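Subject: for your reference before the review

Hello V.,

The reviewers asked for a structural picture of the protein, and I figured it would be easier to keep everything in one thread rather than splitting it across files. Below is the amino acid sequence we used in the manuscript, unchanged from the supplementary table.
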Amino acid sequence: MMRKFDMAAAWDDARQLMRSYTALTVAIAAVFLFLPALAFAWLGPAPVAPTEGMGIDQIVRIYEQNMVQSLVPRIGVALAALIGTAAILRLWLARGGVSVGESLAFALALFPTLIAIELLTSLAFALGLLLLIVPGLYLVGRLAVTVPAAIDRGIRNPIDAIRTSWRLTDDNGWSIFFFLLLVTLVIGIISVIAGVVTMSLFGAEAGAGKIVSGLVGAAFIAAGSFVSLAVSAAIYRQLAAEGTAGVFE
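And here is what came back from the structure prediction:
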């Protein structure tokens, strides 16, 4: 029988992870998470805002237009983040000492697998959500450690990585989902509050407002991604081995 998932222990381990290799992981996060998000906020295409009196159809078309014109830079930001998250996970999950260069080289070597994992898991989530939503939510929990498992075990086949996550999360899918949901809600609420405060103080127009809001937004995107990454690594560490603390410290 699989061990039951312990949310409190996972959060404690996530906090421990965020305090380990701090200089190295923060440097990687700054380059691959913060700077791409900042570049998109400052240099990306300005979204078209709907005007008063527009109908639903017009608003939907504007939203689609904004998504299309920002698609390429968004993909670039996502790919950079994928490399950064893989390198950070490698530092956290490696049993021996690993340098930044080695972790980045490992992330680049596993890059095609990580892209395939993202595409397959996103497709699975989408199909699950179409099936009355609940299956998609359940899959979030069951596939939560796919990327950490691939990075820790050097799995090159994305299907094998998904199978590993499915096996590790057996009997714990809903517990993991609700833990991730809680973490996501907290990060989201803090980010929204920070964004509202920033806009109220500096506005969102070109100039100082755009500069400050871009900085704050990118900082919270990077910080939120960093926390979420530590949580996923902690979940994996807990489920992957007995006596996690003794093995990984």
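For the response letter, the relevant points are probably these. The longest helix spans residues 208-240. The chain has a mean pLDDT of 89.

Happy to draft the paragraph if you're swamped.

O.
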